[in-house]
Amino acid sequence: MPHSETTQPQLDPGLYIVATPIGNLGDISARALEMLQQANFIACEDTRTTGKLLKSFAISTKMTPYHDHNAARARPNLIDLMQNGAAVALVSDAGTPLISDPGYKLVRDAVAAGLTVTTAPGPSAALAALTLAGVPSDRFTFLGFLPVKVGARRAAVAEISSIGTSLIIYESPRRLAATLTDLAAALGERPAAVARELTKLYEEVRRGSLGELAAHYHEAGPPKGETVIVIGPPATDSSAIKNGMETPAGSAMAQLMDTLTQTLSVRDAADLVAAATGVNRRDLYQIAIKARREDQ
Ligand code: SAM
């Protein structure tokens, strides 16, 4: 055991998922430091990266590598250590482990082995970017990294065009312009943001439509640092409907009203759809009346 039991309180045996800063060391939590200090081992992706973090906080806990290439071999050993009384903290290079980082299978196996699994939650680029983007944040889908190969990426983008929530995507600066172009082509001019260097000195959030952002990064070239793309949801609000029902969401709403008004009054159909979708009741009413006039 790396720590003397006389000076350090001991953690119970088990797995501790510890979030670390995504740039600014000030974002480490008091509980994260406590767990890193008191753990018997820190499982980390890169011992050099985590070594620097530990050095900044004068923590000398023993590190053990746990990354994509050794995970299958390392996992049983870590489970064994925990079953024999060790507290193992899992960290990634930055941010929250398991979020586009290794760790899920270790959690799965620790749970299956009946071990305690707990966390010191903290920074994650995905949520930090969402909070700064200025798009609806009540429902969102985290997509991690899209495929790198162009064909596979376009297929993935086509698939996500049907998702009705805000979207969060990790992307490397090198592929940013190409990915934004594919997204604009498949998703249309949805509001979006590119968040860069979050929590660091040159933190930047560039907001615009997908097309505007694609044009900017084609022109400016790859930005420095790490980037997250955040995209607002497809329009399902009154503006889609008022704009001649030309968007998929607008015409879907018009079709729904058309179907419902074959058996319900326009007023009842508008009430029902407004309650289910949040779309303005009066706009729905107007769509149905307009469609009825056009039919006559
Ligand atoms: N587990 C990490 C988390 O919780 O944020 C994410 C790890 S993933 C391998 C790395 C990606 O996260 C980067 O390619 C980038 O998209 C995003 N990222 C990490 N730190 C960032 C930062 N400071 N600013 C913007 N994006 C960041």
Features:
single chain; 296 residues; alpha/beta; Cobalt-precorrin-4 Transmethylase, domain 1; Methyltransferase, Cobalt-precorrin-4 Transmethylase, Domain 2; 3 domains; five-stranded parallel β-sheet; five-stranded mixed β-sheet; 12 helices; 17% strand; disordered N terminus; binds S-adenosylmethionine
Oligomer: single chain
Number of domains: 3
- Unreliable spans are 1-6
Structural classification: alpha/beta
The CATH C-level name of the largest domain is Alpha Beta
| Number of helical elements | 12
**What is the 3D shape?**
elongated
Just name the CATH architecture of the largest domain.
3-Layer(aba) Sandwich
Radius of gyration, rounded?
25 Å
* Order of SSEs: EHEHEHEHEHEHEHEEHEHHHH
Task: Describe the protein's topology.
Elements: E1 14-18, H1 30-38, E2 41-44, H2 47-56, E3 62-65, H3 71-83, E4 87-90, H4 104-112, E5 117-120, H5 125-133, E6 140-145, H6 150-160, E7 166-171, H7 176-187, E8 191-196, E9 204-209, H8 210-220, E10 227-231, H9 238-242, H10 248-260, H11 266-277, H12 281-295
Parallel strand pairs: 1-4, 1-5, 2-3, 2-4, 6-7
Antiparallel strand pairs: 7-10, 8-9, 8-10
Helix pairs in contact: 3-4, 6-7, 7-8, 10-11, 10-12, 11-12
Bound molecules: S-adenosylmethionine (SAM).
S-adenosylmethionine binds next to helix 5, strand 8 and strand 10.
